[in-house]
Amino acid sequence: MVATSTMKSKNSECISELIDRRLDHAQIDEELDYWYHGLIEPNLNGEVFEERTCQNLAKMLENCLSRAKKTKLHCSEVLVPEKLTSRIARDVLRLSSGEPCGLRGCILFINLEVENVCKKLDRIIYDSSVVPTFELTLVFKQDSSAWPSLRDFFLIGACFSPGFRHALKLSPGFRLVKKKLYSPSAGTVVEEY
Predict the structure, then answer these.
(1) Which InterPro entries is this protein grouped with (predicted)?
(2) Which residues contact 132 (CB under 8 A, 6 or more apart)?
């Protein structure tokens, strides 16, 4: 079943957040319809809903990397290991499960660690109508074991401006940092994968 709500019935603050990320109308509808759909059908089988949530979260992460490749990463393509975004999505859901509002109370900051420098890529707020109860910081890592291809050396001077890479390869490893906003004494949880 597909939710058929219109843009007018969706939270305007959430829409402006998505517009600020420069998404087109179809992408905004897709992201908002998913969360609206999950809220109006609470009787879905838990496993089906969790799988759908995981798939959509993985897609949101892929979209984030796609948007960032030219604006913040300065490359023409980002090579993502198979199933990496799915693994991350499952871990985000696991870390969200013990929170008062679950994933809806999460602010997810997405970063990339390149040569020991952390670059901010994006921020995802799942439900702007819910007061955030925790933050997750996802840190993708560059695959430092990969040698640049000869093609990259030849293309750098010919087609791209200085500082523009042809391809950025991500490592299968990543880091998730969880910070509870409602309980400062709870501390920070860091999980390295």
Answers:
(1) RTP801-like, RTP801-like_C_sf
(2) 105, 106, 107, 125, 181
